[in-house]
Every structure is written in structure tokens, then in C-alpha cells.
Amino acid sequence: MKKFKERLSGRIFFTLALSSISALALITVFIISQGAPLIAEVGIIKFIFGMEWAPSRGEFGIFPMIIGSVTVTLGAAVIGVPVGICCSVFLAEFAPPAMSNLFRPAIQLLAGIPSVVYGFWGLLFVVPAVRNLFGGPGLSILTGSIILGIMILPTVISISEVSILALPRQYKEGALALGMTHWQTIYAVMLPAAKSGIVAAVILGIGRAVGETMAVIMVLGNAVAVPESILDPVRTLTTNIGIEMGYASGEHQQALFATGIVLFVAIMILNSFAQYVTRRK
Amino acid sequence: MYQQTKIVVNNMNFYYGRKQVIFNLNLEIPKNEIMAVFGPASSGVTTLLRSLNRLCDLNPEAHMDGDVLLDGKSVYGHGANVTELRRKVGMVFEVPTPLPMSIFDNIAYGPRLSGRKGRRDIAETVEQSLRKAALWDEVKDRLSISGMSLSGGQQQRLCIARVLALEPEVIILDRACSGLDPISTAKIEESLMQLKEQFTIVIAPHNVQQAGRVCDRAVFMLMGRLIEEGTNVEVFSNPRDQRTSDYITGRFG
Amino acid sequence: MKLTPAQSERIAKTMIWAAALLVIGLLLFIMVYILVKGLPVLSLQFLTDIPRSMGRAGGIASTIVGTFMVTALAIAIVIPFGIGTAFYLAEYTKGNIVTRIIRFSAESLAGIPSIVYGLFGFIFFVIYLGLGWSIISGGLTLAFMILPTVIRTSEEAILAVPHIYREVSFSLSATKWQTISKVVFPSALLGIVNGVLLSVGRCVAETAAVILTAGSSYGMPTSVFSPTRTMAVHFYLLASEGISMENAYGTAALLIVLILLINVVANAFVNRFIAKGR
Q: Which domain, by its residues, includes B183?
């Protein structure tokens, strides 16, 4: 009886784990089976580098959206990464205990706020601010970057903090014993030592920015055109799906799944890279 | 001269991965005595003790050749029952480790695992075990509080009581007094002296003095090899080997 | 001009404190603004009436029910798979190829954008399995989405259980299953619950994946096969199409209150978990 329970429980856990990984397989198969035929029909080069997106005329080129995703994501990284790393250093090194006990749940809360709320808040405050300060419509790459820069903070902060806290205490003690100041110790010893974790944090943050939909849909303006400045409106890969999925059918719907494939592949590459960086230690 | 042999270790070579930690060790452990196994850090004492109830199986890197016999039967051979072996050979660890449950449940843990269900029967076992471990009087009114709220010495006696509740034949104590105050240590040593009437006890003492105080026979190990084995008097008063004598007198270790 | 170490220390410290205060300030700004605008809208009538004329009038009762049902379904489905996988990873494998595949899959699943989960849920549950836009399609899709989070947080909670407990249990003649069910699981439970609660928060907040799978009709759902509109979707439609700012604020305020509540409870659990580990 004991032996039987023993074997049964092992089998059950294994089966559950196997079902969990088949989730990834299932998602991959279904997204690809829906989108791949259209990519094959249009031609992969024309699909990715095509400048024209006009579903009614059967034109499916997503290059403007790729440019949109890349620029908004880079902007988010430029804004979010320095602030995020500063915050993780703050948490790991400077915050008084009472402060960090408050700060950590606050970061978790920041991650919990619905993305539609971020988008709405951006629409109310960031869009007018950008319009008044810099001109243009306000619905722009810059606005989207600011919103996404805030949204990737929890990812960047928590993963960087963990990698800083994971450093052996001797690193810090050794550097301080050599007469370095606290900041020199952080800058010259601790941050370089925690580099792989911080890089992973940044990559995962970028992954989050690439994948975000609802917040940016409200602040980017969603125009299908290659932008000329950061004050121009753009459309990203995700918002393209979010906007048109509601009414698309036939070939048009397939094209949105094909957009999903591109997104999926981009995220998988980013993820594998993050996993590779953390594992290399 | 000694009565009966409880455990025999035959030609044991023990490895973690490629690293060998015990070399060609032979040992006989007599019944109803306290055997102390001692030596400096990384001399293989803990590994030897853990091999007696196959707890070292938990480390996937560990493997050995040779054999361990309990009452003449191999504990590593085909068809050996590990669960049964661990019920017969109980272990008290270096750090007092009550499981995160009440005092009562800690002690009832083992008996319940072997399928005993009767409430009265288990309560009886809990009381007997606590009495034998000299803890009953201190905790009898608060058996339902968490085992972790006891003091360190009480926790370790709880762990001894927990082993006794299994009704084992052999009790292993791996540096079980190392973190305790002298009074708790004295209490535990006192109960050991009584327990040896019923059990075979193998102890890794936390220092030479304790080994000298409590054991009937002693084994000195160094770097995975058995250096010397004999009665308390032989090992501690007239060691044959220079290294034993150097260690006992405090020249190294 | 070269800065002295003391000067650069001062500048760096100022910047780091400024960044931290900026982030706290932003969080407070967003939350307080929504709450100030939205809390006055939350009346008993608003909470118990269904939306009327596209959400311009009436309340949000059906969206609360929809959110609750979709989330409950997702959590009920994810619990056995997520926690089971975590136990398999933490207790049954020895870093072999199978473990690495499972871990790679879990980490990859964690990075997939919610809109892609939405696409998958749409084509697989809504179309292929013929479940239509429904609570069950939405719940299943969200279960896929939160699976990696539940696996990771549960695995961390299991690995945080001191190894010595397992040794003690084995030394008292327990089998592996007895050790897991009687010692490891109870000790890890608070940490596991914390992870599940955070996933509840993600389900409540999610928009993209549910709008594609559960639909957006705001009638009161009658079964798990009814289509529904969750609170987050309702808020999005009200705000982005400018239907009713007042009701949008009210919905958002309730969302924020819920998220706040979930986070507070989750933190209480994790603090007890840490206290217990000592």
C-alpha cells in the first residue's frame, strides 16, 4: 500500500508537470498554424519589411509596427532602466529597514495595477503634458515610452535587487576595508559583480515592454506609419492585434495571428537570452 | 569479551561523486553499549553515522561499496527495506530540529507513519517517550504548543523522545549536544546512560571530553580512516596510536 | 573638473534617493487620483445594478460577477497543475534533461505577452473547442497565463522549506510521499498561497487576454458558458470610447481597491511565512 501510494504520487506529479509543459507546445502550435499560411502566401520578407498595412486591399506589411515596437521599447528602457537600477540599489543598500518594508510592497503594488489604468492615467496626464511641453499631438512614442518605462520598473527593480542581495557579503566588506567609500564599493565592486542578474532584469523588463498592449493602445495614437520623430504617433505589434482583432476575419485575422508569431518569436529570443545570461554564472 | 554485536561495518569505501571520504573501514558495534565515534572536522564521522540508517541516500552524489549489517542482515542488499531500517535505527541531529508542529504531533509523527491510529495508544507512547527523554515534567501541560517554542536543550530532548517513540533498536546522536548549555548536556548524557540498557547507542560527541564521559567503547577517525578502536579506558587512557594521543591531548583538531 | 570621492558619493546618493521617491510618488499619484475620483461613485446602487445603455447609466454588478467567475475558474484550474509541477521540479528531479525542459517552458511561458495568450485562447477555446466567447474560455486562457507564476512562486516556497525537515522526516521512517504531504506541503503552504493570491490579482487586472476570449457583453452571466465583460474590460471600453468618465472612475477605483486588498493579504501571508521559517 505504502509502495503503491509512493509510486502513484510520483506519477501524478510527473503527469501534472508534463501537462504544464505541453501548454507551451499547444500555444506554439495553434498560433503558428493560424498565422503561418498567411506569411507563406505573402512571403516572409514582404510581410516583415512591407511598408503597407491595408487589410481591405490585401496588403499585409508590418514594418511600421516593428519600428513602433522597437522605438517605444527602447524609449521605455532608456527611461525605466536607470530609475529601476537606482531603486534596486536604494533597496539593497540605502533604504532604512522601515523604508524598505514600505518600498517593497509598493513595488509589488505597482506591478499589480491594471495596465488599462496606466493607459488611462497616461491619457489624462502624460499626453497633455507632452503636447504642451513639446508640441505635436501628444499621442506619441515619447508618451508610450514614459508609461512603459514606469510599467517595467517592478520587473527591473525586483530582479536586480535579488541579484545585488545575492552577492557574498565579503565583496562589500573587502572593498570597504580597502578604504573605498560606500558608493565606490557599489559602483566599482557590487554592480559589476551583479551584472548578469541586472542584465537579465533589463532584458525581462524589455520583454514586458514589447508585450504590453492595453496601456499603450490608449496613448500611442496608433497610426500605421514610420515615425519621423519621437513626438509622432505609432502603432506597435501588440496594439495592432488589440485594435483589429475585434472585427477581423478571414485573411485579415490570419494576418493578426502572423503578427502574433513575430511577437512570439521576438519574446522567445529575448527570454532565451535572459535565461542564458543568468545561467552563465 | 563483549556480549553481542548489533551492527557490523564491512570494508566500507564511501564517495561523494569522485571524492572518497571513507577508506576501507571495518567496525563492530556491540549491543547495549554506548559507542563514541570521534575525530576532527571532515574525518568521515557524520558520513559513517548517516550510512548506518541510509540517510546518506538522500544525497544523489553519494555512493559506497562494502556493506553494513544490522543483526547480521545487510541493510544495503537487494530487498532491504529502508523504511523499516530507519524505524529500527533512529537519529538525532546536530541542530535541534522540531518539525513545525506541536510537541505532541512531533512525537506522534513516527508512530502515525507506521499506521498506528489509536488515540489512547499514541498518547501512551508520547508520554512514555517524553519520560524516557526526561522532558515529560517540563512539557506535560503544554503538549499542544509548537515544538519550536521550547528552549534549545528542551528541543533536543524532544528530538530524542521523537526517536524513542519509534521504538528503535539503535539510536544515533550526531554531535547532538554541540549547541547546548552544560546543564542540558548533562541531562541528555544522564538519560543516555539509562537508555543504553534497552538500546544500542552510537554517538558522535562534540568534543573529546564528552566522548570520555559517556562512552563504553570509542572509535577515533582521521581523514576517513579508522585509526583506533577500543574500550573507553584503552582509547582515552592508553591510546596505542600517536595520532589518537595527540588529538586527545589537544595537539591538533 | 574631477569629483572627489566624497562629492560623487553625495551626488550618487541624492540621485538614488530621488529615484526611489519618484517611484513612490508616481504610485501614490496614480492610486490616489483614481481613488479620489472614483470612490464617490461607488454607491450600493452602482455595485448592485447592471450596466445600462452601454454603461452610460446603471452600475457594474454583472462585471463584478463576471470578473469573479473568470478568476475563480482560472485559479481552480491552475492550482493542481501549477503546484503539482512545482513539487515535481523541487522534489522529484535531479537536474536532468526533463527538469531543464520543464523549467525552460515555464520561464518561456512567463514571458509570453497577454495578448498572445488572448490570440491562443481565441483560436483554441473559443473557435477550435467551440466554447465561444464565454466565462469558461476566459478562465481557461487566464489559467494558461498565470500557470508560470504559480509554478515559480510555489517552487520557491517549497525550496525555502529547510532541507533538514526532510532529513528528519526520512530519518523517522517516512516515505517520500509522507514527507511531502505531512511536512513539506504544510510548511510551504503560506508561501504557495501568497503566489496564488498574486495570480488572482493578475487575473482581475487582465484585459487583453479576456476581451478576446470572454467577450464584452455586459449582461448578467447565467452559467460558465455565458459570455461576460470583466471589470477591467468594462473600464477600458468606458474610458477609451469616452462613454462615461464617471462610471469609468468608479470601476477603476473598485479595481484598485481589490488589487490593494489582494496585495495586503498576500503580504500578510508572506510575512507569516518568513516568521515561521525562523
A: 5-248
